Amino acid sequence: MNTIRQEYLFRRSITGTATPEEQQEWTDWLTMPENEAMARAWMERAYDEPKDLVQLEPDKAISMIASILDAGREENSLYDGMRDRVQVVPSARRRRLAYWTTSIAASCLLAYAGFYLVGRHVGNKGIASQTPIVPGSNRAVLTLANGQTIVLDSAQDGQLPTQGGVKLVKLNGSISYMQAGREAGSTEVVYNTLRTPRGGQYQIQLPDGSKVWLNSASVLRFPTAFNGKDRRLELEGEAYIEVARNAQMPFVLQAGKVSVDVLGTSFNVMAYADEAAIKTTLVSGSVKVNREGRGGTVILPGQYAAYDQTGGLKIEQADLKQVLAWKDGEFRFAETRLTDIMRQIARWYDVDVEYKGDFTNVVLSGVISRRQYVSQLLEVLEISGDVHFVIKDRTITVTNK
Questions:
Q1: Residue 210: its pLDDT value, please?
Q2: Which among 53, 211, 266, 299 would be 20 to 30 A from 185, CA to CA?
C-alpha cells in the first residue's frame, strides 16, 4: 500500500466515513507487525492534529471498538491494553455511561487503535469559550533558602543556582539534586521549596536519589542534603514518591497532621486543603501512616489509608490505576462524584467552578487524556449525565440539563 493510499484510508477510518471494504483494508494493514511503527506515527500525528476528527454516534463508536476487541488482535502490541481499558456496555446504557467510557478511553489510546473518538472539538456547537482553556503543563517555581526564586518553566536546561553544597540540574521538565557535600563551615540545614501552580506539575530527584512527581497546586519543602537521623519533607497537595532505600535513614513525609514513615517504597499522598481526607496509597513496599495525637498504622501494597478532618481512619483496597492516573497523564474516574471530578479539573486547568443545583449524588465513570481542552472533557461529561456546563472567562458553571 503506498503512502497516498494509507493517508486516504487513515482519514476515512478515523472520521467514520470509510466503506466496509476500506475499513477492512485499513484494519488489515494496521495489524501487520511490519507496519506497526508507521501506524503509531499516523496515530500520534492525529492526536496532535485533531482538526480532521468528527464526533461519532454512540452505537457506531461502540461497534467500532467492539470490532477491534473481538477480532483477536491482542497479539499485535498496537492494541495492548485496549481490552482492559475500553468497556463495551449493554445498549440500554450506551447513551450515557457507555459513550462516555468508550469514546473517552479510545481518545487517550490513540496509539492502540485506528479510531480517535472524542466529543465535539472546540468551536463546534456545544460548550464553547471565547479563549479555549488548555490543559496544564510542566510549570513550577523553586524557592531557595535565601529567598531567591527560579521560574523553572522559563529557565534554560542545565545547571541552576542553588545553596547547600549541591549541584542542581534542570532537564526536560524535571530538576535533579546531586549532593556534593556541605558548604565549608556551614552547619545549618538548608531548605528549598518547589511549588506548582494550578495548571502545573513537575518532577524532582532529591539528593538521596528519591524521585517525586508533584501534582498541580502543590508545595514540597525539602532539605538540599540529608545529613540527620532521617530524611524529612513537607507536602501540601499531591505527590507520587519513589523512595531510595536507606535503612539507616528513614524517609518521613509530613502532610498536614499526617506523617508517612518509609524505608524504600513507592506511594501516593493526596493532602489538598479542599479534600475531605488526607489519603496515602501504597504502591509497593511498606509504610506506616501516623496522625498527630494518635497511633500509627501499617498499610500493605494496594491499600490506602485516609484520615478525615476529625481524625477518623479508613483503610481499604485502592484502584491504583485511578490513584496514579494524574501521574500517567490521564483523568480516570470510576463511579466518582461529580464534585470530586470538578476539583481535579479546577486544579489542572486553573479554573473556578460554580454550582447551580445539588450535585452531591451525581457520579460518573470514564478515562480521558489530560491533554484535552477543558471544553472537550466537559462535553463528554454532559453526554454521560444530566449535567450542563457553561464556560465564561475562566469559570465553569455546573447546572442541571
A1: 96
A2: 211
